Each structure stands twice: as C-alpha cells, then as structure tokens.
Amino acid sequence: MANQQTRRDYIVPGPIDPELLRLQSQHRSEGIWTGTMEHEVLTCRRQGNILHADIDDRIIPHLHDSGFIGIARLGFFPLDWHLISAFVERWQPKTHTFMMPIGECTISLQDVDIITGLPIHGSAVTGMSRAEWPEVCELLLGARPPPEMIRGHTLKLSWLTDEFGAIPHEADDLKVLWHARAFILPLIDLIFPNKTNSRVNLMFLPLLEDLREVATYSWGGACLAFFYCEFCHVVVTEAKEISGPQFILQIWAWERFKIISPSIRDPSAPHDAPLGARYVTKFIFFFH
C-alpha cells in the first residue's frame, strides 16, 4: 500500500522510457516543469489582408475549379494565442500528437478537409523557388511588378492590392482569370504564412497557370505537413512566435473540446462553406 501511495505521488513530466521520445529533454514542457522556462504566450503570425470586401461572381467558377472555394468562404475570427500556446506545450514531435490527460490525439487529413474544404487527395504540392518572377507575374497576372516590389521569391502585398482591386465591368475572360489568380495567391498564404504580413509567396504562382489542374494537388496534405513542421520546430526551441495555419488548430480544438468552444455565431453558413465558417463574425473572405 505504501509503495502504491509513493508511485501515485511521484509525477513524471515526460515519458518514463526516454528511448522512444528522445527529444523530451529539449521540449518546452520540460523547461516549464523544471522551472527554467515559464508558460509563455507565443505570438501567432498569420498572413492575410483583405483584398476584396466581397467575391466577384465572375471569379467564383475559378475558385470552384481550383478547389479554393472552401477556404475563400472561411471568413474572419481572431486567433486565441493562449489556446494555441497551450497546445504547443502538449505537442509531441516524435509522434505528431497532443499529449492530453485523456490520451493522445491529433489533427488528421480528414479534419483539414472538413474544416477548410481543401483537396486532400492528389499530387504533392511542389515547385521551384527560383524563377524570373517579374516575367512570371507578367505572364500569369497580366502585370509586371516594379523590381523594388519583389524580394527573393516574395511580392509586396500592397502592390497586389493596388493592382487588383475591383474587376472592371468590361473585363474580358482573360482579365477575370488574372484577377482570380491574384485572389487565390493570398489565399495560399493563409495556408503557408511567412513571418511577415506584408508579402505573399510567389513560389505557388506557377502552379496557378491551369486552375483546373490546381485542384489535382493535395493542398490539404501540404497544409497539414506544414502545420506539423512548424509545431515540431517551435516545441523544441526557444522561439517566441509561431507561424503556420494555426486557424486549423483553433477550429479543431473548438470542435473537439466543447468546453472551450465559443457559441456558433452564424449556423446558417453558405452551402459551399467549410465547417470552419460556422465561427466567423461575418462572411468576409480573407483573414485580417
């Protein structure tokens, strides 16, 4: 009985056997347990300024063709930095699972599909990070950015905003296609956000040449892989901020742990909206 009481009182912060989960000594939770690190609220970086107050009806067919209609319907809600930071402390990079009191759990491909509407089947999202980006922009967007707007493989979001506002009433099919690509490019940056809110990544622009082919890529799979990668990096470093598609974690946590879930603000989401649209304040189409 005494031995049982002793075992009950002795709490081990990490795995008893370190052979399998060898990164525990570097884990944020280890530092919190030993007192060398405090519970820290991470800065959650998120890309996405609103380029359009609404979606022009003329580009909606292109959004359907490309498979991005769902994420375009997600709308806006603020990120809960405290919630995301708490889940970081419970992330196990070796198993890609959250270590919860009730057991292990994780975000699956099916979750990404239901939450965002992104395609989860198809080819891997791959491409080149080097190209003559002014020429690529001119070919696929119909406009050539000034050299000072491009840095590496990123483009100033302000140029995209100024160049692609409201679609002219007399725009032909080609110009509408250019606007559709310019609309989708920041949407992709919601999935793969960088450390700045002022630039979009041009690496994905060549993939938008044929919007019907875009839907054959597993964007949901790439999104989940990027989420795993970002969490695995942050959890074993002293990073002060986290990037990646953290909105997926927040919606997933709200759906799985109802005790922390807010009330659904508008259950009458559009018919083509993904599950995540249930929590929006109002139906706007880019994260702000």
TrEMBL record:
Span of domain Aminotransferase-like plant mobile: 67-279
Pfam family, one: PMD
Domain of life (superkingdom): Eukaryota
Name this protein carries in UniProt: Aminotransferase-like plant mobile domain-containing protein
Species: Hevea brasiliensis (Para rubber tree)
InterPro entries given in the database record: AminoTfrase-like_pln_mobile, MAIN-like
